[in-house]
Amino acid sequence: MTTPHPGARLRSLMDASVVAAPGAFNALVARAVAQAGFDAAYVSGGATSVAAGVPDVGLLTLEHFCRVIREVADGSGLPVLADADTGFGEAEMTRRTVIEYHRAGAAGLHLEDQVFPKRCGHLDGKTLVPSEHMCEKVEWAAKASRDCSGGAFVVCARTDARGVDGMDAAVERAKAYVGAGADMIFPEGLKTEAEFAEFAEALRSDSATKRQSDGGRVYLLANMTEFGKTPLISLSRFGEMGYDLVIYPVSMLRVAMGAVTRALETLKAEGTVEPLLGGMQTREELYGLVGYTPGEAWETPV
């Protein structure tokens, strides 16, 4: 029996309803995402970077990202969309990135139109590459998807133009990226619910975003990150506005590190972990998460 490509699985889920994809920065978190009942997971460049102890400015290698993607895909068994920053280089490296992410088990990736070194999408001071430059990368990514997966691998184009040149420029760039072959568009740094609705309407209503040749459609991604430029918006509301996938890139890492920091402060102050026991995952819960029964052989999932 042939297993569907993760990208095909993700498309089917999005065709049915808006999909939530919590960020997983390692395999254990990925298992928890699946155990909680989510249908997809996300690998964030920001979370992957800070988990490695470096800022999110494009310092990690393609191989590092592929290792995390493989762990998250294997650990969760879910379709995984992964951040590819600026593609790790120019067009040739963008092609290699698609192929390597595909081999690592990703359902798809997103590329952004910032210059390298990039900045977090919710920081000021970003600089964009020319639209034509980004379109070339999208074209190479789309061809690589066709070559390695028959086009199942999802190519998502992110634009940071809203915070640099305004909403009209973001819409214009998005339409150009669709024309270059993007399967999905990711508008970063939108500031209000009304802006998300406006952007979705502009993309949905424009004939240039319709795939006349293959009958497909262009998907929309929303980034629900905390402490940034975007207000907190519910998954259902994003769905009502026409978004197909909502990522929560750093949420679980922020929750985890908040708990770790507070626990370390308690241990330092009191010299014992006893006050922390109530907030800990028990040994049995941890074993349950990884599917391990002491004394029994553990089989690697297929």
Describe the structure.
This protein has eleven helices and eight strands. The chain is of the alpha/beta class and 302 residues long.
The backbone outline, from C-alpha atoms, is globular
Count of DSSP-assigned helices: 11
Number of structurally distinct domains: 1
> For the residues shown, what is the average pLDDT?
92
Helix content: 40-55%
* Full CATH superfamily name: Phosphoenolpyruvate-binding domains
The CATH top-level class label: Alpha Beta
What's the number of extended β-strand segments?
8
**What is the level-2 CATH architecture name?**
Alpha-Beta Barrel
Share in β-strands: 5-15%
Strand sequence of the main sheet, in spatial order? Answer: 1-8-7-6-5-4-3-2
From the alpha-carbon coordinates, what is the Rg to the nearest angstrom?
Answer: 20 Å
Low-confidence stretches: none
What is the H/E order? Answer: HEHEHHEHEHEHEHEHEHH
CATH fold name, please? TIM Barrel
Secondary structure layout:
Blueprint: H1 6-16, E1 19-22, H2 27-35, E2 41-43, H3 45-51, H4 62-76, E3 80-83, H5 91-104, E4 108-112, H6 131-149, E5 154-159, H7 167-179, E6 184-187, H8 193-205, E7 219-223, H9 235-241, E8 245-248, H10 251-270, H11 283-290
Parallel strand pairs: 1-8, 2-3, 3-4, 4-5, 5-6, 6-7, 7-8
Helix pairs in contact: 2-4, 4-5, 5-6, 6-7, 7-8
Short description:
This protein has 302 residues and is α/β, with parallel strands linked by helices.
Keywords:
single chain, 302 residues, alpha/beta, TIM Barrel, eight-stranded parallel β-sheet, 8 strands
